[in-house]
Amino acid sequence: MSAARNEPTSTADTTGEPTLAEDAALARELADATGALLLELRDDTGPGRDREYRGDAEAHEFLVGALQRHRPDDAVLSEEGTQDPAPRRGAHRLWIVDPLDGSSGYGRGGDEWGVHVALVVDGALAAGAVSLPARGELADSATVAPLPDTPVDPERGLTITVSRSRPPVELRRLAAVFPVRTVALSAAGVKTLAVVDGEVDAYLHSGGQYEWDNAAPAAVAVGAGLRVTRLDGSPLPFGADDPYSPDLLIARPAVHDAILDVLLG
Ligand SMILES: Nc1ncnc2c1ncn2[C@@H]1O[C@H](COP(=O)(O)O)[C@@H](OP(=O)(O)O)[C@H]1O
Ligand SMILES: [Mg+2]
């Protein structure tokens, strides 16, 4: 992909590190630009595996190339990049990106796919953005609107979004305590923004994922005041040699507490 595509004009301050707001703005602009590339590619190709593979490869090439130009000193972990941990081990600043999350749905032609761009500083999530181009949604950790921490209504129960292909086994334990309605969606960013937008109460996943699947969604969710943890209540891992990420729960604090009370009780 050519470097002529619209990219942010801001660059890192050479006298010091970019601010979190600058990093969040860069994440947003690169997620948006990568999403525009994927929309164009989608419109130029027929549905199927070829579109899926080209989407993964071309989005990766564009996004990682742009990050290297804007933040040349930073390390990058991309789903489509090298899996060798040596170049990123111990990095002070590590970008974790999924150039195309929900790639099989992208190949088929639905709207449940997105672009994830996140920054981890010294092992802690610092900034991130999620673009859902086919849904016209774009959110970043610095400017996302806060979600009110409304208490759980025990009569109404909880609406929980889950993987379309791999729904979590924990649902059964929750359904024994609350009325639970599930909303199956593809792609981690799609599910997370459904929580951020207040369309559902929680996103629950178990059975595995990778850091690129949840880093940017988690950053946006935390920016909106949501709580993001593993199902045992511990923080999500970021920057490990093995990017496997076993499970997660994303919800506003009142809902997060109510769900963990059941799962840990
Ligand atoms: N059990 C599992 N093991 C590995 N990856 C998983 C997984 N469940 C979900 N994922 C990944 O998490 C992302 C969202 O999945 P889902 O839509 O099922 O919730 C997808 O990323 P990709 O589309 O980037 O591969 C998918 O591959
Ligand atoms: Mg993914």
UniProtKB/TrEMBL annotation:
Enzymatic reactions: adenosine 3',5'-bisphosphate + H2O = AMP + phosphate
GO molecular function term, any single one: 3'(2'),5'-bisphosphate nucleotidase activity
A Pfam family per the record: Inositol_P
Keyword entries, A-Z: Magnesium, Metal-binding
Disordered: region residues: 1-23, 70-90
Database matches in InterPro entries: CysQ/Inositol_MonoPase, Inositol_monoP_metal-BS, Inositol_monophosphatase-like
Cofactor(s) the protein requires to work: Mg(2+)
Keyword S-adenosyl-L-methionine: no
Biased composition (Polar residues): 7-17
Binding site for Mg(2+): E79, D98, L100, D101, D213
Coiled coil: none
One BP annotation, GO: sulfate assimilation
PANTHER family from the UniProt entry: 3'(2'),5'-BISPHOSPHATE NUCLEOTIDASE 1 (PTHR43028:SF5)
Name by which UniProt lists this protein: 3'(2'),5-bisphosphonucleoside 3'(2')-phosphohydrolase
Originating species: Actinomycetospora succinea
